[in-house]
Amino acid sequence: MSPLTHDLRACGASLLAGTDDPHAELLALVWGPRFDREHALGLWARLSQRQPQAALPVLPQLLSAADHFDTLGAPAQQRLRRLILRHRQRVLM
Predict the structure, then answer these.
(1) Across residues 3-9, what is the average pLDDT?
(2) 31: Cβ contacts below 8 Å, ≥ 6 apart
(3) Which pLDDT score is estimated for 63?
């Protein structure tokens, strides 16, 4: 498992819980050439309001995921986006 995948799995469930479309939120984070930290911090802020204790360990994991994503080349970033889209399709079936 890559460091990025590990970080996203570690923080993703709690970070994306309660969102209407978790896949869309995840795609929003990785859609551009750089991880959208502003959007990520907004998601984290909502989590910290709902569950302050649960949010504490999520922030470093989220920032680590952002750093790992930013080091990926364009082909690897696109591959990650396709994986998210494929997973979304499987969940919706």
Answers:
(1) 72
(2) 81
(3) 92
Buried b / exposed e across 54-76, counting CB within 10 Å, b at 16+?
ebeebbebbbbbbebbeebeeee
Half-sphere exposure of 65 toward its Cβ, with a 13 Å CA cutoff? 25
CA angle 5, 38, 61 (to 5 degrees): 30
Q: If residue 68 lies in a helix (H) or strand (E), which one and from where to where?
A: helix 58-71
Q: How many helices (H) and strands (E) does the chain have?
A: 6, 0
pTM equals: 0.86
Interhelix angle for 3-16 vs 22-30, to 10°? 140
